Amino acid sequence: MKIIIIGSVAAGTSVAAKARRNTEEDEIVVYDQDTDISYSVCGIPYYIGGEVPTLDTLTPRNAAWFQKRYNVAIHTEHRVMKIHPDQQKIDILNLKTGETVEDFYDELVLAMGAKPVTPVAFESFTDAKDIFHVRNIQDASTIHHYIKETQPKTALIVGAGFIGLEMAEQLQQSGIDVTIIQRGNQIMKHLDRDMAFRVQQVLEKQGVKITLNTTIEKIKRTDKEKRLATIDNHACERESDMIILAAGVIPNTSLLHGTNITLGSSRAVSIDEKMRTNIPHISAVGDIAESYSLITGKPLYRPLGSTANKMGRIAGDTLTGGLLQHRGILGTGIVRVFDMVVAYTGLTEQEARDEGFEIEVLYNIKPDKADYLGGKELTIKAIADRKTGRVLGAQITGTQGVDKRIDVLATAITFKATAADLFHLDLAYAPPFATTKDPVLYTGMALDNAIHDNPLITPEMLIRKQNEGEKMQIIDTRSKKQFEASSVKNAIHIPLSELREQATLLDPTVITVTYCNKGVTGNAAQNILKNKGFQTVYNLSGGNKNYQLYLQLMGD
């Protein structure tokens, strides 16, 4: 059997490696139009910023090494021009010689990845020396050389996803004044807006300027040899020495025209659990292929190297008689933004509501380990289905311990854990690594309590109820000094130590909201009032700290 793979980055090389591990009999051929194989796109910003010392570090395996190691024929600088499914052949252009040849396959694997989005205003600037994509090793080399040679003072970044934020961090730390332009009303679209706002505050604290709800409509060069971006019908202009286009990616499906290969709702290639397309003998893997959500079962497109490697391994196995199958994804992601780490998995609050779930939302603000050993605050926003208790998603911000918690939560969600299941996890504890009640355990406990006995109210819900004129009594259980510094609108101050005595001054039939600074004391007050016969008592999730941050977001 002859397997031909188009593309040789994460997914394509994984197909070839796994297929060869399974058999020495099959012929395996790889075509790629680039000069490099199996490189780390995700590492490019860190090379540009100097954290990765040499570009070779991002390309640990060259074509010659891979070919010898796996007995795979790799043809770089060869562009596949056309696929002929009926004849099971492809047309290939040798970019070095200009010669066009054809090759025949028994099985074809599409691993062409994704291509960067070019906003309309930039479509005529593809050859500009100061406008860059961040997608391959050549891009990395070009940007690095430009910065070294021209010493730019300002940079404009179009887009606020992973690459945009990583480039902002690295350029700002290199002494370049950075402005981010984002079309939507928040950065990091895979977070809920209130969690994205926390990240925005970190960026702005570090000097990065952020302009939301903004589209660049025109680009021109000024007399000073800078780029001038005209924004939103000439309402604003931004001048910069260089521009980074980080507006996202789209599946690289242009080669598929005329093949009748089905694309999914995300416009990526639709595949089954064995990575096969609707056309016999053609599979698709990596950033060109559409996955599906482990929670909803619906199509989900989240192009990441981890998923690409997994898909490649599955395809290489199934093509050579193996039994591996794709099980879907949660869309888990993580990124460092200066001293903050941001991670997410599963559904956001908005996505869960859009899917029709009745949900409970928890903001859990806790240190990642014992305070006396340098514990730093984590904010975990977790979402659970009220009907089943199943955890649907989580988002975390913090300076340390974020990766550990998001991986535990992703694992739990994968295996359909409920909030109660989280609390019963037997996680590792010692003061240098965790608190006695780890933030994950506390998340499960608080969510489970909220679902069954101790309902939570988010700042958004509380403000909405107040704006609608709903009658409530809001109890601030903190110290007088804290209350006078900042408090929830219309709250009355009753410290927790006095609540039992003063509860008689409150109306047990009126909706009551208790709160403290982060949530724990508010929960204690909630229990006191419940036990005294109060009919409906909410605890403000995340306490006054979360409420005040939400007010900042709404005023932004």
TrEMBL record:
<dbReference type="InterPro" id="IPR050260">
    <property type="entry name" value="FAD-bd_OxRdtase"/>
</dbReference>
<comment type="similarity">
    <text>Belongs to the class-III pyridine nucleotide-disulfide oxidoreductase family.</text>
</comment>
<keyword id="KW-0676">Redox-active center</keyword>
<keyword id="KW-0274">FAD</keyword>
<dbReference type="Pfam" id="PF00581">
    <property type="entry name" value="Rhodanese"/>
</dbReference>
<dbReference type="InterPro" id="IPR016156">
    <property type="entry name" value="FAD/NAD-linked_Rdtase_dimer_sf"/>
</dbReference>
<protein>
    <recommendedName>
        <fullName>Rhodanese domain-containing protein</fullName>
    </recommendedName>
</protein>
<dbReference type="InterPro" id="IPR001763">
    <property type="entry name" value="Rhodanese-like_dom"/>
</dbReference>
<dbReference type="InterPro" id="IPR036873">
    <property type="entry name" value="Rhodanese-like_dom_sf"/>
</dbReference>
<dbReference type="InterPro" id="IPR036188">
    <property type="entry name" value="FAD/NAD-bd_sf"/>
</dbReference>
<keyword id="KW-0285">Flavoprotein</keyword>
<keyword id="KW-0560">Oxidoreductase</keyword>
<dbReference type="Pfam" id="PF02852">
    <property type="entry name" value="Pyr_redox_dim"/>
</dbReference>
<dbReference type="Pfam" id="PF07992">
    <property type="entry name" value="Pyr_redox_2"/>
</dbReference>
<dbReference type="InterPro" id="IPR004099">
    <property type="entry name" value="Pyr_nucl-diS_OxRdtase_dimer"/>
</dbReference>
<dbReference type="GO" id="GO:0016491">
    <property type="term" value="F:oxidoreductase activity"/>
</dbReference>
<dbReference type="InterPro" id="IPR023753">
    <property type="entry name" value="FAD/NAD-binding_dom"/>
</dbReference>
<feature type="domain" description="Rhodanese">
    <location>
        <begin position="468"/>
        <end position="555"/>
    </location>
</feature>
